[in-house]
Amino acid sequence: MSETFKIRKAEPDEYPGIEKIFKVQGLENNKSGVEILKGYSVEAFDKLIGGAEVMVQDGEYTFSVAVDANFKGQGIGTSLFQIVKKEIQGLGAKRIMIQAKVPAYWSKFGFLEVVDPNDVPKKFRCDDCSQYGKDCFPKIMVLDL
Ligand SMILES: CC(C)(COP(=O)(O)OP(=O)(O)OC[C@H]1O[C@@H](n2cnc3c(N)ncnc32)[C@H](O)[C@@H]1OP(=O)(O)O)[C@@H](O)C(=O)NCCC(=O)NCCS
User: What pLDDT does residue 136 have?
Assistant: First the structure.
């Protein structure tokens, strides 16, 4: 089954389609103060079924990843993360910081929870988000590169 999906670099005009998948998969999509550096799309049977965006927020390299519910558990998230990690390493980053909705998933890749909020830039923390603590309970996690 893993042969049936194809990951490729997306053009900026394709980002809204990728972000639609983020939204359907429950990811918050506030792009205020966020610079998108690269996007990746995943296609299967000529249909967009997942994607990733590499971003800089408040000086931290970060990313979003989502996969359509019908295609989860086939290694697509893992493949996307490997591409994103390589991309961020290539930019000379020392670490990747994420607002993790599924911390158990990211700990598989070596991400650790940041316990001291002072280690997280102010705007990267979700304090100002209306969903925070209501229907979204992310953990800030970091992977040293
Ligand atoms: C999280 C997500 C990207 C994973 O994508 P995926 O293609 O299903 O992941 P993979 O197939 O690469 O899974 C790899 C492993 O992680 C495990 N896994 C998947 N989702 C998990 C979760 N939510 N928590 C813990 N482990 C998880 C799989 O069981 C698999 O384990 P294995 O290697 O032991 O078999 C996908 O479930 C998704 O789009 N979720 C909604 C959006 C989201 O939460 N994105 C992350 C934001 S921080």
Answer: 80
